[in-house]
Amino acid sequence: MDNTLHIIGGGLAGCEAAWQAANSGVSVILHEMRPTRKTEAHITENLAELVCSNSLRSDDIENAVGLLHEEMRRCDSLIMQAAEKNKVPAGSALAVDREGFSGFIQEKLAAHPRITIKREEIKKLPEKEPAIIATGPLTAPELTKDILAITGEENLAFFDAIAPIVYKDSIDFSKAWFQSRYDKGEGKDYINCPLDKEQYYEFVNDLLAGEKTDFKEWEKNTPYFNGCLPIEVMAERGKDTLAFGPMKPVGLTNPHTGSRAFAVVQLRQDNKPGTLYNIVGFQTKLKYGEQQRVFRKIPGLENAEFARLGGLHRNTFINSPKLLDGFLRLKNRQNIRFAGQITGVEGYVESAAIGLLAGKFAAAEITGNAMIPPPETTALGALLSHITGNAESASFQPMNINFGLFPPLGKIKKHERKKAYSERALKGLEEWRIGARLKVSSYRL
Predict the structure, then answer these.
(1) Average model confidence (pLDDT) for the chain?
(2) How far apart are CA 100 and CA 108, in angstroms?
(3) pTM for the complete prediction?
(4) Which CATH superfamily is domain 4-153+318-436 in?
(5) Cα dist. 79→143, 167, 250 in Å?
(6) pLDDT band at 439; cut points 50, 70, 90
């Protein structure tokens, strides 16, 4: 067997897989098609570019994604190292400076003696060489066509929407103010723009009436992922939906009036210098001109200058429960593994986590070592098990990590469950790291 591992795709999953495999003693070639071929969503040529949000979500280990953060840290995750080095204030969430984050990852991979980065488009799956396909939700058409030819599956897809980013110095702080909900984190991690009842309903009406991006005929029946709905799609579900969702005013007091607003638009720091802020939950398919017209009606954003306007792109994923084995290998082409969003996990952290596992599994196979998957009681194991067999293949849809994917606990009081899930997971992770991965096992790759 060729001992060089080919990783196709330089997003978070591909970069994490390359790091894990190379640190396990395997030579890696990381193939990234940008800038040779651009995508609809990426702006830069950087590896591990964050396209949608700069937030990696909650960092609390009693939250499922925060637990996944901690498990990845304990597995020497490159993505988590980059996040720690480039984090920006975001309350109890882990948010990062985009450029610093991707720059750190690119520098680390370029300097690694066992990693070669090649800027080229790969149009077909490797015939025999060990490979990890981590091309993400924007896999190029030629490679997508080859994947579908080999898997025999129809393409599954959904739309993913991107939130706008505003320059901080264009925000009017005679109306806006700094505060986190219930003063969590540093207490002043978000910029808040208040709307009274009349302003809120006018805003909702503008969203509903605003001119939207047109879909191609073949895109019209493609479903959205519920965790990243465009704000106007949420508004279509009822005019009060936003006031109970991303624009809920709870835990916030307007210092200019001493009262609580009817609704609040929050902005979260997007880069380390604090010059850019993204509008939380405002993923949108409004056309650019409409975005500027509608969003500048928000108090405090009347003169907003946008570093990036929102957008919409089509995501592609495979039917992993049907196609992949428990080590992320394609069942009918076992030299091929998949990792990241293309496997049907949703979210930056989840994508990187599957990349971490794919890199470890591939390295173990190439070096002739035995390895078992992490236990399902861990966040890593629960996520892996979900996409490789626990989910129903007939109704498979992208999923974020959540405690519903974990094996149930015994009889534990409701308010103690999250802590119990986390304690059980971290104990299981340590047993897996220290023992199972090093032992000769009958459960061989």
Answers:
(1) 90
(2) 12
(3) 0.82
(4) FAD/NAD(P)-binding domain (3.50.50.60)
(5) 26, 26, 33
(6) very low
